[in-house]
Structures are given as C-alpha cells and as structure tokens.
Amino acid sequence: MFNFKRPRHKLNKANENDLRLSDLKPGEKGRIIEIGGSENFRHRLIEMGITRDAEICVDKYAPLRDPMELIVKGYHLSLRGMDAQKIAVERLA
Amino acid sequence: MNFDIAVAGNPNCGKTTIFNALTGAKQRVGNWPGVTVEKKSGHYNYSDLKFDVIDLPGTYSLAAFSAEETVVRQYLENDEADVVVNIIDASNLERNLFLTTQLIELGKPLVIVLNMMDMAQEKGLQIDADTLATLLGAPVVPVIGRTGEGIDLLKEKIFRVSTEVSNKARLIDIAYPRDIEVEIENLSQLIRKNDITDKHTRWTAIKLLESDKQTRDEVRAHSNELDILNQAKVSIDRIEGLFKDTGRAVLSHARYGFIQGALRECVVETVVDSVDHSRQIDRILTNRWLGLPIFGLFMWLMFKLTYDLGSIPMDWIDTGLVALMNFISGLLPDSMFASLLVDGVIGGVGAIAVFLPNIFILFFIIAVLEDTGYMARVAFIMDRIMHNIGLHGKAFIPMIMGFGCNVPAIMGTRILESRRDRILTVLINPFMSCSARLPVYVLVAGAFFPDNAATVIFSMYILGIVVAIASGKLFSQTILKGMSKPFVLELPPYQRPTLRSLSLHTWERGYLFIQKMGTVILVGSVIIWVLGYFPTDVEVDRNYSSEKNILVSHYDSQLVDLESKLNMSIEKDRLEYHSEMVEYESSASYLELYQQFQILKEALASERSRELYSLRQQEIGDITEQKWIGRVGKVFEPIVRPLGFTWRESVALITGFVAKEIVVSTYGVLFGVGEDVDEGSQGVISGLRSSGMTPLVALSFLVFTLLYTPCLATVAAIKRETGTWAYTFFSIGYSLALAYTLAFLVAYFGGKFNWLS
C-alpha cells in the first residue's frame, strides 16, 4: 500500500501503533481519534471540520498516489499522505 | 446617507456570485493596502439609500492564518462595516457555519445568506431558515445566487438591519461548555473593568483564550495589560488541564458542537436517490489512470484555442492597424511628428495589441477552469510534482498562466497561502515562456531552422520549464528554505459557470494587459523610436546612392541586352520558319522562345529587386549603427560578443526589456523593414541571415531571449507581489546571469563540437 519513507509522526497521546488516516484504503471509513502535527496544522484541520470523533471517508488517491481525497462533514477535502499520517483514526465498518 | 456592507464567507460558497448579483457591473478592483490580496468593491441603491459593498476574500476562519484571513479580520475588526453579509453554502452547512460562529462573536450586525439552496435540496436537505435565524440571532435569507432568486429579499433584509438601531442586542452568544464560559466571563470582567478595547468584549476574551497573537499584542499596548494577560494564562492553563488540548482547539471543537446542535434542530435530511454529480465527474477527471491524460488534453486544448482562435481577430487587428497607419501617413506630411505617431506609437503599441485576442481567450479559459471548480482538481493532480520543488499543488496554476503572460500569472500567485510559497512561485514564473516570446522564436527559428522550427520552439518551452523547476528546487533549498504550508485543499462541487462571471473575470485581468499597453509599452515604444530617429544628420561612409545608381544601370543594361537577344533569336527563328498554314507569331516555336525569355526577364527583375533591397538594408544598417540606438548597442557589444552576438542583438535585447515582443519590432527597425513587421516577415528573415548570424548564434540568442530579465511589466508585477526591491533585483540579476551562462554554453560547446554545421 501507500508507503512513506519517513518515520511515523509521533502523536501526543495516541499509541505508536494506532491506525493512521493514511493507512485507510479508498472507500474505507474512519473515526478521528487524534490529530498531531504543528499547532497551526492541527488548528487549521480542526477549523476545516476534521474534529475529534468526526467520521471521515477516504474517497481516492490522486493519479500520482498523493495527495488523497477525503470526505468529511459532507464535503470533499484533499490532504497529503504525510499529513494524513499525523491523524490517528479507528476504522469503521 | 450610505452604508458599508461587507460580504464574507468561505471560499467556493458563491460569494462572488452574490456580490455580482448585488452590485451588477458597478465594480472596482484594487488591492488591500500593504498586502497583495484583491479588494473588490461596488455599490447599489435601495430605497434611495446607497449601499457600498466590499467583497472580502474567501476564508474558512478568522484565525489570521493566511494573508486573506488577516485582511478579513482587520477589516471587520477595525473598519466601519455597518453590516456583515455572511454567505453560506447551504449544501455544505456544517463547515460554512464555523466562520459564522466567529462572525457572531465579532458582534457586528449580521445577515446570513443561505446560498445554493437548489443544491441543498438536491442533496435531500430541508433547511428551516426561520429556526436557524432564531438559533443564530440574525436574519437568514435563502437565495440561489446563480439565478438571482432571493436577491431582492436580501436587499430588503440588509436595508432593515442597516437602519435598525438596536440591532446589536439581538445577536446571541455561541454557548460554550460551562468550564469555558466561566473563563470567558473572568476575562470579560477584567477587560470591561479596564475598558481597553472598543471591540466586542466577548470576542476579545475568546481570542485571548485562543492565544491569538494579534489580540495579545493589542492588549499589551494598554495599561494594566499584565492583569489581563496573567488571567488569560491562568484561564488557558485551566482549560488545557481540563480538556487536554490547546485553548484554540478546544474552542474550535466547541464551535462545531454548537453547530451540530443547531443543525439537529433545523435541518431534516431525507434520503434521496440523487447522484452526487461532482463525484461522478471526478471518477473520470481525477481518475487514477485518466486524470493526468485528461489534464494534458485540457492544457493542449487551452493553447490550441488560444492560438488558433486568437489568430482570426489577430488578422483583423493587423489589417486595421496597417489601414490606420496608411491613413495617418496620408493625412500628415512627412515629418518627425508623423514618424513618431506612425512608427513609434502605432507601430510599437500595435505590435503588442495584436496579442490582445490571445490574451483574452487565455484568460477566459482560465476563468472557465476556475469557475467550474476544475482548478482545485489541477492542484490535486499536480501536487505530487509541485511538492518536489517545495510548493503547493495550487502553485501549478500560476505556472500554467505564465505561458500566457507572466504579469497576470504573477498576480495569480495570490491564491497561495504562505508568503514563502508566493515568493518562490513569483521568482520562477518568468522562466515559463510567455506568449510575448513566441514571436521571437517564430522569427528566429523560421530564419535559421526552417525545417525544424516547431521542434526548436517546443524545446524553448521545455527548457523554460526545466529551468523553472531546477531554480525552484535551488531556491527552496537555499534562500527560501522551509516547508510549504500544509496542503489542505477543498475540492468544491463542480458548477456550471455563468457567462456573466466569466466575462467579468476575463475583463478584470485583460484590462490589466490593456493598461500595460497604454503605459509601459507606449513609453517603451516612444523611447525606442527616439533612439532610432536621432540624430537625424547621419553621415555614411559608403556612397549608397551612387552604388544604387550603378546597380540600377547595370540591371537596365542587362535588360536591354536581354531584349536585343530576344529580338535576334526571333529574327533568326523566323527565317527558319517555313509553314504556310500558321503565322509565325502564333507558332509553337515562337511562343516557346518568347516564354523562355520571359522567364529570364523575371529572374533578372527579381534579382534586381533583391540586390536593391539588400543594399537598402545595408544602408539602413549603417545608418542605424550611428543612431543612438546603434551606439547603445555598440557599447554593450563587447559584453555579448562571447555569445556570438553583434550590436544588433544587444540592441534587440535591450529594447526587449520593455516587452519581449519588441525584440521583433526592433529587428524590423534595424533591417529597415518599416511598418509591416510581423513575425513571418521575409525582410527581417533575410536581414537576419545576411547579418552574419549563424544557426548556432541564433540558438544561443533564443536561449538568451527565453531566460534573460523579464519584461518591464513583469518586473513591476514582481515588485508589487513580493513587496520588496530585494527580490525584484534578485530576480533580474539571477535571470540575467543564468541567460548569459546558458547562452554562452550553447555558443561555446556548440562551436567546439560543431553542432549545427
């Protein structure tokens, strides 16, 4: 699958082995557990509706495998894999 | 009496459509002071009152994260907007309402517009506008911006809210969890007690809890600031301890909590089996396999249309200009003034005016790509590539626009969020080969590589892209270190664009180009004319008129010889002719002989005009060499000699600084082609060939033209967008050095390894 050659981003609370948004395959849904990264990044994402407990769906990946297209709060949003890796999720059936 | 109305909303919420519907064509586009964010304003009248409307840039929040957000926030906090009109995409309520919660806290009278009601209905959303109005404490007007439905009601509501005095009291507060409310109250009391701000107290308190830098700086400017800042610190610590997150994140989550609560009360979602059209379209347009080829196809179509469709009105303008020149030449006696008007002004500006159709078509297509929502997909598709040079996918858009003209392209870098990204994109943009460079390529490649002209021209474009990418990589690792802003890009639903907004967008940008023609290019053309016209008393060593006489009499005598030869042959042939049936003058043998001589005569005539023309060009060359323009060229000749250039190239390149297409018209002047210079002109081509330029030098000249200092208008745009002379001079110096180096490498290695010979 989508493999980044960089160390996994460290989150504050989430377990290192938690599932990340970047691990989800197209069509899969997740619930957001925690958002890592810089303050500015986190705040921007939260303001854009990527809030804790929000449902998020991976719609597809771009033709060159990055970035990814997500559906959250009923609208479409695009994030890079390296940023999606900073978001811990749990997979929803 | 007039009122100031500010229109605010998320990007892609149809804000500009509503603004256009309110103000009609009475709009002005300018800049917000100090920053390069577009400021659009207009006005309308309602019941004898004038309403001045400002279209604020689209933002998701008032966090001062980007230049746009800073502008919006500063305007709303400080300026006297009487009413804020908040446009909301009804089909995307939840996220759009986030900004609304902040606008409510700002405490300005508010009118909320539920735009795109039709799309919400298609999605199966039934929105109870009255309940929403009660919950938000502000009137809510449902409209469909695209059709104009509901605009009259909106004007009425704006009128009512503007004229109501007691409006402020009607706003409600966004209710936060109790623990947060306690801290807001603690801070508010202190703020009220010290009376330090004329802004909404609650807004200031909340911004302090969010550790907002701007608000902290403002508070710091007052006495007793320590009390407040200390209280803020205590409050933040308490909130962070309780919620295990930053104050800003906690408040943002609470806002979304409020929104979700409100939506539960006023939105009924029915399951409809309508299809998500945008998603269907994206299945193809951003498809893993088809996405890139389709994007390539669109780009190809864009250029095809720009050039092919543009060439039709281009011919009309050309014809019109020639007619105008002839008309003025006929009207005025041959004088300095006539020459200034015809050769200087009309010739110079006209050479650029012919590109107007291309530019307008390009801007129109770009407006279509933007208004439909495809531009966001371009960023989505291209981000991977742009990320390589440390840029955002959106930065690809100004890069493409650079193929048209670098000036609007550089202005287009405003779509980028971070200053670093904008400066980087601005600096590499001039290497994208703009349409003004094309005439130079066509001319020079046509003269020296007639069989491979298209390949040569295409490789110039490719070289430009390669240099842009390499420079981007270099800059992002040296002078502009740092990561680009995180890539958080909304992919808005596809929209059918309205002709009105397309033409408005096209006109706004095209008008800038017309402005450039009327100012920079006009002045540049006149300067070049002056340099080429003076001094008027130029002495040439060679006696051209006697040489011309010798040439003329030489050809005259040749012609006489030919005539007498013909007559002799005919007489001889007639004697040998014996048929009684046909008269000699109608015989096949006579006709054949006559035709043979006719061909010889024509060959002689064309040789004669060629020789005379070449002599005339040499004379003009000699004269121009002594004009100021030639003297300037001579001064710089030693510098460019290693590249194989002569004084002519140095003149052409200097004048090309005004606008690169002027390189062509300068050659026209240098070779005395006169008014009818166009890029296919045989006169310039023969002049170039006879000037001693070799194909290798031509190639090195093309490379230099592509890369060297962008034109004056572009330099002005760079200054405006980067805001500093430092980057402007850096851009000039860098491109000049790069052009010189690469052109030298072409000339040197080409000569060494005998390319092109």
Compile the SSE list and pairings:
The complex is a heterodimer of chains A (93) and B (757).
Chain A: E1 29-35, H1 39-47, E2 55-61, E3 68-72, E4 75-79, H2 81-84, E5 87-92
Antiparallel strand pairs in A: 1-2, 1-5, 2-3, 3-4
Chain B: E1 2-9, H1 15-23, E2 27-31, E3 38-46, E4 49-55, H2 67-78, E5 83-89, H3 93-106, E6 110-115, H4 117-122, E7 125-127, H5 129-136, E8 140-142, H6 151-163, H7 178-194, H8 201-209, H9 213-220, H10 225-243, H11 247-266, E9 267-269, H12 277-285, H13 291-331, H14 336-353, H15 356-372, H16 374-388, H17 396-401, H18 406-411, H19 419-428, H20 438-448, H21 453-477, E10 488-490, H22 499-533, H23 544-575, H24 588-626, H25 628-640, H26 647-656, H27 662-670, H28 682-690, H29 695-707, H30 712-722, H31 725-752
Parallel strand pairs in B: 1-4, 1-5, 5-6, 6-8
Antiparallel strand pairs in B: 2-3, 3-4, 7-9
Helix pairs in contact in B: 3-11, 5-11, 7-8, 7-10, 13-14, 13-15, 14-22, 15-22, 19-21, 20-21, 20-28, 20-29, 21-29, 23-24, 25-26, 26-27, 29-31, 30-31
Estimate the global geometry of chain B from the Cα principal axes. Answer: elongated
Approximate strand percentage of chain A:
25-35%
Uncertain segments of chain A:
1-8
Got a strand count of chain A?
A: 5
Gross morphology of chain A is globular
CATH superfamily of chain A: Ferrous iron transport protein A (FeoA)
- Main sheet record of chain A: 5 strands, antiparallel
**What share of residues of chain B is helical?**
55-70%
Question: Which structural class matches the secondary elements of chain A?
Answer: alpha+beta
**Portion in strands of chain B:** 5-15%
Oligomer: heterodimer
Round the Cα radius of gyration of chain A to an integer and report it: 12 Å
The number of domains of chain B is 5
As a whole number of angstroms, the C-alpha radius of gyration of chain B is: 35 Å
β-strand number of chain B: 10
**N-to-C series of helices and strands of chain A:** EHEEEHE
Supply the number of structural domains of chain A.
Answer: 1
Name the CATH class of chain A: Mainly Beta
